[in-house]
Amino acid sequence: MTISRVALSMMMGLAGCLAFQVSFLQAEEQSEKGAIVEGAGFTLYDMESIKGVDSEKVEHDPVCDRSRRPKIMKVEPDDVKPGDKVVISGENFGTKECFHTVTFSAAPKAPVTFRFVNETTIEATVPEAKAGMSFLIIVAGGGSAQSKPLLIKGQ
Questions:
Q1: Which residues pair with 65 in a beta bridge?
Q2: Could you say which of 77, 92, 132, 137 would form a disulfide bridge with 68 (CB–CB 3.0 to 4.6 Å)?
Q3: Distance (Å, rounded) from C-alpha 76 to C-alpha 102?
Q4: How far is CA 109 from CA 25, 68, 132, 150, in A?
Q5: Structure confidence by residue, pLDDT tens digits, 76-122
Q6: Cβ distance 90 to 72 under 8 Å?
Q7: How far apart are the first and last CA of the chain?
Q8: Contacts for 121 with CB less than 8 Å, ≥ 6 apart
Q9: 53: burial class by Cβ within 10 Å (0-12, 13-18, 19+)?
Q10: pTM, whole model, 2 decimals?
């Protein structure tokens, strides 16, 4: 019984190798015709996978420190209405190029106008949102941070 299992395993392995070789030969044959072979990428066409690389642009791209998680220490004022400006104070907001966005949980899809002041300060305008408690969320190069709740008053 043991010998037949070993023999069966060997036969299945050989069949797998044979199937791989046949599919490889078919892909090679299709590549000569210029056909697209699923999963082959650019390898069959001797092309670079990234076209138009501008090394000067890459050299000037910002390097964002992903190891420094942002933290919101304070949002002033803590009771606001839509259209008011808030000042977000904290740490590890990164650089202007690495800072992504500000959102309010009471209006998650509303665009928020903000100004990056420095690594510890952001100014934002409260969007149209439902009255009630809301969290302010920032996203920077090192991750996201959420404030303590602030009160959004109705118009």
A1: none
A2: 92
A3: 15
A4: 51, 27, 17, 18
A5: 998 999 999 999 999 999 888 889 999 999 998 999 999 999 999 99
A6: yes
A7: 82
A8: 87, 88, 89, 93
A9: exposed
A10: 0.61
Burial letters 124-140, b for 16+ CB under 10 A, else e: bbbbebeeeebebbbeb
139-153: average pLDDT:
92
Whole-number Å distance between alpha carbons of 28 and 40: 10
**Facing residues of 87 across strands?**
76, 123
